[in-house]
Design goal:
Order of helices and strands: HHHHHHHHHHHHHHHH
Radius of gyration: 25 Å
Helix content: over 70%
Oligomer: single chain
Shape: globular
Structural class: mainly alpha
Number of strands: 0
């Protein structure tokens, strides 16, 4: 019984479970670190730290979009050669490293003028945010390769390593008197350590599977032209998938944060109370962000093989919906004591809206999962749906006038509609894959006397003709 229980626990943590646990652990550590830094820094310093974090999050979206593209290209297809795959991975790493070095230098040159424009008192902190975002691109490439290799436990460990390194170094340097600049150095150290760890884990996994030969291993002479064509297609595919993913990630980021900005604009007196419930309600979104790293490669791989990813989608949704509904229940029965303990009694004004906003953020987490599924399946139309949902949500939140409960209700309605639309697109995405699972009988008829040329879908592995058909065809050829 004990062995069976350990086996079940291992299977649960082998896929989305390990990523969900890592996401909860890292974001819980972030919350505790923010509480510590809010007490160590003065009001001006903590505000500058929040601005620095915001700059990093905005600039790092490019790397996150590239990660989606790397996942899609990192899953080997039937016509991909090992040399071409190893070549584009090596080439992408070199380009990202050179771009990161150049960006760091440019950040040091531009931090003064940018700080003057923003009236920001810590110019070097801006350069640190730019450098961290540049290194984040390399980390995103390595994490995308881990995803493509379905190394989910290694990916979860990378999340934890990055979070621990960043939090420990940040708090240590802030306590040492380096202030906001010390926090920026902690961010860089965390991203650097995570990037090197992910690169080592990717190289170790590739060596064990013999999938990624070095860039100097030359192919046969007959394969050179085909390898060159694959490189061109890979470059175009990476560019296309990165742009598509960026078009999806920007609306998702706005859907996640625009309610706090609008309440702060329309109702500054209660902005802190709404920020408290908004922070508490981000739990399902944080879990969704982590679990999406499991869903994206699984959907891409199954789509490539002509199979729907219903099972993995349900598993990922379970890890998001369960804590979301738990938070809804807690918000309905114990919102005031929970907010009072975590944030203090002066930030309990938003307690009546807590369960409503928790349900809205659960819908947003499902939208995030559906979007990653659709990106993995190559469905680009989701970008338009998310853009329309963002515009409608912004208008509805502004119409709420800054009232906390009305804002939460407007967010719930808009997030539910957006989740329904992306869910409908996900259901439609199953239909082509399901119809391709079988080849029509008429398509397998011989094209002419003495020949047998079945029409096979290029996305499916070739199937041998029935033995009787092969024998009859060969007998006709002999006659």
């Amino acid at each position: 019984m004990a062995i069976a229980g350990r086996g079940l626990f291992a299977r649960v943590l082998s896929g989305p479970g390990s990523l969900a646990v890592a996401g909860v652990a890292v974001n819980g550590g972030n919350l505790l670190a923010n509480l510590v830094l809010a007490r160590v820094l003065n009001a001006t310093g903590y505000g500058a730290l929040v601005v620095q974090t915001g700059i990093f999050l905005i600039l790092s979206m490019g790397g996150s979009a590239l990660q989606v593209a790397v996942v899609r290209r990192g899953i080997p297809g039937p016509g991909d050669s090992q040399h071409a795959r190893g070549f584009w991975i090596h080439r992408l790493r070199v380009v990202c490293a050179v771009a990161a070095a150049v960006t760091c230098v440019l950040g040091l040159l531009a931090d003064g003028p940018v700080a003057a424009v923003l009236s920001y008192p810590h110019p070097f902190a801006i350069a640190e945010a730019i450098a961290a975002a540049a290194i984040w691109v390399s980390l995103s490439v390595e994490r995308g390769l881990l995803q493509a290799g379905r190394a989910y436990q290694e990916l979860a460990g990378n999340f934890v390593l990055e979070g621990i390194g960043r939090i420990v170094v940040t708090i240590a340097l802030v306590f040492a008197g380096f202030g906001v600049n010390g926090a920026g150095l902690g961010l860089i150290v965390g991203v650097l350590c995570a990037a090197e760890h992910a690169r080592r884990r990717t190289a170790l996994g590739a060596h064990g599977r013999h999938e990624l030969p070095g860039p100097r291993s030359a192919p046969a002479d007959g394969d050179r032209r085909r390898a060159g064509g694959q490189r061109v297609r890979t470059r175009h595919a990476l560019r296309r998938d990165t742009i598509t993913a960026l078009g999806a990630l920007v609306p998702l980021a706005m859907l996640q944060n625009m309610d706090v900005v609008i309440v702060g604009w329309l109702n500054p007196a209660e902005a802190g109370a709404y920020a408290a419930i908004a922070t508490a309600c981000k739990v399902p979104v944080f879990i969704g962000l982590a679990v999406a790293n499991f869903l994206l490669p699984e959907a891409a791989q199954r789509r490539q093989r002509g199979r729907p990813a219903t099972a993995v989608l349900l598993a990922a949704a379970g890890w998001v919906v369960a804590p979301g509904l738990l938070l809804v229940g807690l918000g309905a029965v114990a919102a005031v004591p929970m907010l009072s303990v975590v944030f203090g009694p002066h930030l309990i004004a938003g307690a009546p809206a807590l369960w409503v906003l928790a349900l809205a953020m659960t819908c947003l987490a499902m939208t995030l999962l559906f979007t990653n599924y659709l990106l993995g399946a190559g469905q680009q139309k989701v970008v338009g749906v998310l853009a329309a949902g963002t515009v409608i949500t912004g208008a509805a939140l502004a119409a709420a006038g800054g009232d906390l409960l009305a804002t939460a209700v407007a967010a719930l309605v808009c997030q539910a509609v957006t989740a329904s639309m992306t869910g409908f697109m996900m259901l439609r995405a199953h239909r082509p894959a399901a119809s391709d699972l079988s080849v029509p009988v008429a398509a397998r008829r011989p094209a002419g006397p003495g020949t047998h040329q079945p029409v096979v879908d290029p996305g499916l592995p070739a199937q041998r003709p029935p033995r009787s058909a092969a024998l009859s065809g060969s007998s006709r050829a002999e006659r």
